Amino acid sequence: MKRYLKAGRHETAYLTAFAVYILHQVLSYSLYVSLLPDTLFWFLKLTAAVLLLSALLLQGRLSVQELLTDAFLTGLGILAAIYSRRGFSLLLLLLFLLAAGSLDFWRLLKVNLWTLLGGWLLVTLSCLAGLIENRTYPRPALGVTAQTLGFNYYAYPTMILFTSSVIYLVLKGKKTSWFSLLFVFLLNALAAQIYTTRIYLWAVTAFEVYLILACKFSLISLKSRLFLYLARWGHLLCFLGSLALYTFYESSHPLWAALNAALSGRLQLGSQGLSAYGIHLFGTEVIMYGNAERVYGNVSAQSDYIDSGYLYTLLAYGILFTLLLLLCYTWIFQYLYRQKEVLLYGWLGLFMFLNIFNNYLLLLEINPLLLLTLTAVRRPARLPRRIYGHISKAETAFPADTQKRSSP
What we know:
Layout: E1 2-3, H1 9-28, H2 38-58, H3 64-82, H4 87-98, H5 105-128, E2 136-139, E3 144-147, H6 155-172, H7 178-195, H8 199-216, H9 225-247, H10 254-262, H11 266-277, H12 291-296, H13 309-338, H14 342-354, H15 373-378, E4 405-406
Antiparallel strand pairs: 1-4, 2-3
């Protein structure tokens, strides 16, 4: 049985803000965005911001080192936000990071899981009830038609189900049953049939194989230094590899053309975006439209969507913000290695590779691991090592006001 410390006022405010933010995101990616007033969406974002400010004020006394870390991140974040066209969104992200330093991350994952699923069910059931439209997109290359079931585009609901599946498996850990693994696979297989996005079915399958090797057969324990090197250099190498991939893409070369076709035209669109917008210190406005705008909007041209998290962040937010973001991910990755958090490490590693050809580096509801930044930077020993299904000896060495406790 797992027992949790009672959530304090700081944590309650933060988790409520996170739930409000996730609801805002899900509704923004659904067709409710055209039915509900814009003021509602602004109200949700402002509510999240106010709750986060309250959480900051309630988090208690900080050490000098923690204050310096906060000041460093705040300064860079505000600087990037001032020069960015997405200032409020970046400031909201900064508030989430600054107020997350002493959270029970496992409780946050539960909030993430149930709010995501609740939002997905709200939109899907609204569509089935006829309240919002079910958009369809023919995909001739695959010979299928994608359904959205109330969402603006078919990719986002598959991301929701993939993230919910991974969070569920992480929370279950070593106690994950073979039936649970089969259920998660079948759920994502059904989603691949309806929404026709198969990459997340492959991704959740890869994560399940990783979990089986790590938790069922104990073949992965993060003892090898190879995992440390991956944590130190993985995100930087993926970023540089992505930049090189889109920089040296040549449409006339047969190999490049074949790879671009296999990736649904991502290489060509990324290369065009790199040439059109260029690289700037603080980024520039990147105007993108995908199949949703082309089919249901007023755009008659082909899609123009940069579907790479690394490339899009570099172009839209600039060099300074991108390097800061890569540094945060590197800190977190190394922290998870040190704590021997096998499943969280595997999740972040999978996420790192997926963002070469997918764009959700900054979607907190899809990637809550970014919220471990301050824990990784200023409190490396405050999150007790969590051995799945057991109590670690390290847990008893920390004060009772830090994180979740487990008991047999």
